[in-house]
Design brief:
171 residues, mainly alpha, 8 helices, 79% helix
């Protein structure tokens, strides 16, 4: 069973780690920034801690609680976080013409939920390493011109896609 102090530490870690990813998104002006990522990470941590605590709250002793954990679906609360945040991410993604905006931000919000779950279940070191890894990747990949590496620009890629669609329509 988690003590209040353990829960507050886990919640605090989730908030700080969510803020780190959110700060990166905020700096580049993305739709979901520091506030969103803090709330998602903290919320996921709370759900993770709730899933850990439910068996202890519904049983008379620790031995019975451990049996409930082994035989129950209390950990399914965590899987529902994944589904719920997926819907949140879907709201972030915007399709305009042939362009899609917000995919990386939506994916980062989903990732932040996983970071919150990790912090909530006590895997705080792994949550911190994941946070640093994601933030570094977001910064590095934004600076790399991936389209240039394959010999295309974003605009030429979009133009060629539109041309291909128009040719298909004409045939």
């Amino acid at each position: 069973m988690l003590t209040l102090e353990e829960m507050l530490i886990r919640l605090g870690v989730a908030i700080v780690l969510g803020a780190i990813v959110g700060w990166e998104r905020e700096v580049v002006g993305k739709e979901a920034g520091i506030r969103t990522d803090i709330v998602v990470s903290a919320g996921a941590a709370l759900f993770a801690m709730a899933s850990i605590m439910v068996p202890y709250l519904i049983t008379p002793d620790e031995a019975t609680a451990l049996q409930v954990i082994i035989n129950s679906s209390s950990l399914h609360i965590i899987s529902n976080v994944v589904v719920g945040v997926g819907f949140l991410g879907a709201g972030i993604i915007i399709h305009q013409g042939s362009r899609v905006h917000g995919l990386t931000t939506a994916a980062s919000v989903w990732f932040v939920a996983a970071i919150g779950v990790l912090a909530g279940i006590g895997l705080m070191t792994f949550a911190a390493i994941s946070t640093v890894g994601l933030t570094v990747l977001l910064v590095i990949l934004r600076k790399i011109d991936l389209y240039g590496m394959v010999g295309e620009t974003k605009k030429s890629k979009i133009t060629s896609t539109k041309s291909q669609k128009n040719q298909k329509l004409q045939t």
